């Protein structure tokens, strides 16, 4: 099987990380861990959710791409992607839509674009509160230009990305299972 990467994108709270964890547990698709300078949230672990970096240590990495999002730096390293492909030929990565665009340009058909969203935007805020995010961080996140940009599927991805409407988690899992079993049988 040739190497492929599922690129998970979408607004904060839509369910990107939940989908990444689900496909790792159920389908054995490991998540490529990226780097960030943002503070660790309650429940997050270094090396599992992210490699948490200082501004200085972030600068020492070899990034395939990096972005500013909501006032923090995020980047995916070439080493990280290689480490993922050493574990399995099929991996996932969680990126903003700008990073997704870079992956599509660099990896072409090897990048399978998934855009996770919800029907009701107000639901996103409720989910961030339920997740336990810091109130100040939520306000900063929801008012950022990057969050607003990622609320909609980029024009460049129309007819290219698989859109996952994650309103109901049980239905989301069924939709994912259908996609991945089809992929396995192709
Ligand atoms: N381009 C790019 N985006 C990333 C990377 N790592 C995480 N992101 C994105 O950065 C954004 C903010 O992530 P995070 O702070 O974890 O917030 P969340 O969306 O609320 O889970 C999300 O859209 C992530 O997909 C990366 O290495 N590169
Ligand atoms: N379909 C859903 N219905 C209700 N809550 C959900 C659903 N999917 C995910 N969540 C919850 O919403 C919060 C945000 O999900 P998460 O996967 O962290 O989003 P993202 O990575 O896109 O920011 C988490 O607490 C998660 O458990």
Shape type = globular
Mean of residue pLDDT values: 95
CATH homologous superfamily heading: P-loop containing nucleotide triphosphate hydrolases
Strand order of the largest sheet: 6-1-7-8
Low-pLDDT regions: none
Report, as a whole number of angstroms, the end-to-end distance.
Answer: 11 Å
> Class by helix and strand content?
alpha/beta
Figure out the total of helices.
8
| Ligands present | guanosine-5'-diphosphate, adenosine-5'-diphosphate
- Give the DSSP E fraction (strand runs of 2 or more residues): 15-25%
Describe the protein in words.
The chain has 186 residues and is of the alpha/beta class. It has a single domain, classed as P-loop containing nucleotide triphosphate hydrolases (Rossmann fold, 3-Layer(aba) Sandwich). 41% of the residues lie in helices and 21% in strands. The protein has 8 helices and 8 strands; from the N terminus they run E-H-E-E-H-E-E-H-E-H-E-H-H-H-E-H. The strands form 2 sheets. A 4-stranded parallel beta sheet has the order 6-1-7-8, sandwiched between helices. A hairpin with a 2-residue loop joins strand 4 and strand 5. It is globular. 28% of the residues are buried. The model has no long low-confidence stretch (mean pLDDT 95). Guanosine-5'-diphosphate (GDP) binds next to helix 1, strand 4, strand 5 and helix 4.
């Amino acid at each position: 099987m040739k190497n492929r990467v599922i690129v998970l994108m979408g607004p904060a709270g839509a369910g990107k990380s939940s989908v990444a964890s689900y496909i790792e547990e159920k389908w054995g698709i490991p998540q490529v861990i990226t780097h960030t300078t943002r503070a660790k949230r309650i429940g997050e672990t270094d090396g599992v959710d992210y490699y948490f970096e200082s501004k200085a240590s972030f600068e020492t990495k070899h990034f395939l791409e990096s972005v500013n999002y909501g006032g923090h730096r995020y980047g995916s390293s070439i080493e990280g992607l290689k480490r993922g492909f050493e574990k399995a030929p099929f991996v996932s990565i969680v990126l903003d839509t700008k990073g997704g665009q870079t992956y599509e340009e660099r990896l072409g058909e090897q990048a399978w674009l998934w855009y996770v969203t919800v029907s009701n935007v107000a639901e996103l805020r409720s989910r961030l509160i339920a997740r336990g995010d810091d109130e100040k961080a939520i306000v900063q996140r929801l008012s950022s230009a990057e969050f607003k940009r990622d609320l909609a599927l980029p024009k460049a991805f129309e007819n290219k990305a698989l859109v996952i409407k994650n309103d109901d988690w049980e239905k989301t899992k069924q939709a994912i299972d259908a996609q991945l079993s089809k992929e396995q049988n192709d």
